[in-house]
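Ligand: adenosine-5'-diphosphate. Inputs:
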Amino acid sequence: VLTWTMLFFWLVSIVLSYVLARLNMRPIMRSWRRQREFVANAAHELRTPLTIIQNKLELMLTHPNDKIVDQTEQITMSLGEVRRLNGLTSDLLLLARSDSDMTQINTEAVAMKPFLENVIQPYSEIAASQDKHFDSTIDLTQTLSIDRQRIHQLIVIFLDNALKYTTTGNDISFTAKQVGNRWILRVADTGIGLSDADKPHVFERFYRVDKSRSRQTGGNGLGLSIAKWIIDSHKGRVAITDNTPTGTIFTISFPMTKAK
Ligand code: ADP
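Predicted complex:
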């Protein structure tokens, strides 16, 4: 009986390991780990501004006779953190929805030239106010089928980053053109640049090359992961190259989806 029982369990273990191997659990485990990391990172990011707001409010409660000017400063700082929380929660919501395929891409016919001109219009003023130079070339005259709101968001992410990470340089350029059967967006800056070690990771959620500086500049490390989702959902590709003498060039290309 013992031999038969052992044989039975041995057979069961062989069948079980075969079934588990066939099921290929690795991607499932990886996705669970990613989800756990996402939740932990999100909680951490939410906690920092909440702690600051709590401290400011407690300070105001315990020092009710502080000068108006000091109180105003506490309120202004708290408001900055509330704005940060607002941006962070909408980014988190968008990414969580994209994971569960709840965020739809709503394509419509968009005349690209006026659309792009409108999106980038504020940037020459913003750049000028920071003593930087913004230059644009739009050679895309077609009407294409795109999600207007998402492509707007995508361009804003790259241009905001170009401005944020150009503390040492002062040139930002935006180009839109057609190359073969694809349309290209190119955002180049002469800023701090990205090392070869960092380039493959910048599209990961919460990845920041310099966490401390990123907090000062208002970054949460989610912008480029949202950009990547928008690029993927339009069947696009993105490449990062170095600018000369310094800086970064992001080149995004999409298939020409001409509007009918
Ligand atoms: P963040 O909100 O921190 O800017 P992103 O997801 O947009 O997050 O970018 C991730 C990280 O990639 C940034 O923290 C920064 O370190 C790096 N990065 C993004 N754009 C640039 C750029 N144009 N030049 C240099 N580094 C950049």
